[in-house]
Amino acid sequence: GAGVSQSPSNKVTEKGKDVELRCDPISGHTALYWYRQSLGQGLEFLIYFQGNSAPDKSGLPSDRFSAERTGGSVSTLTIQRTQQEDSAVYLCASSSTTTGSEQYFGPGTRLTVT
Amino acid sequence: KQEVTQIPAALSVPEGENLVLNCSFTDSAIYNLQWFRQDPGKGLTSLLLIQSSQREQTSGRLNASLDKSSGRSTLYIAASQPGDSATYLCAVNGNQFYFGTGTSLTVIP
Description:
By secondary structure, chain A is mainly beta. Helix content of chain A is 0%, strand content 50%. In chain A, a hairpin with a 5-residue loop joins strand 4 (31-37) and strand 5 (43-50). Helix content of chain B is 0%, strand content 59%. The chains are: A mainly beta, B mainly beta.
């Protein structure tokens, strides 16, 4: 079956603009995760969803970052008033549950803020 | 907060060698541990998932072990091949997934 997909694959935006990143999880997966990977850095947890609710938003770097998930499926990560330090690869993953099950990752969205 | 450490940060071996990658974590209250590989410019590919009640998992030339009480996992790669060159990441699942910074492996033909 289809894996996790993300769009766009690449996004170049000017500082100060808003961007929206999209993640389509594997069908039937109730858990969805967002991570950020900066150049040469490890994966930084941003937020996860169980269904449509986000029990843990502790990883969001600032109030410019928000995420939502509707219908227990597609999720969007929005970054407002982008800054150069937001440049990174944004990875999405899904799993059938939040405990005990395997995570499957999408290919990521490479965001460049100029 | 859970901290995950991977040693070494980089490793270079000749083709055919067996090798071990290490992952340690500070909080043993985990549901499972997952090993991934990441190729340059790509997403993460899952290699092995070990549940907290298990001690090891095997897939082909890969064997992963878990010692939850000591906070350690190892990924053993047998008869390494140039195609194994990638960054290997371990992630522990507590209430969220915590990732190590990875081991960059180069297998020299």
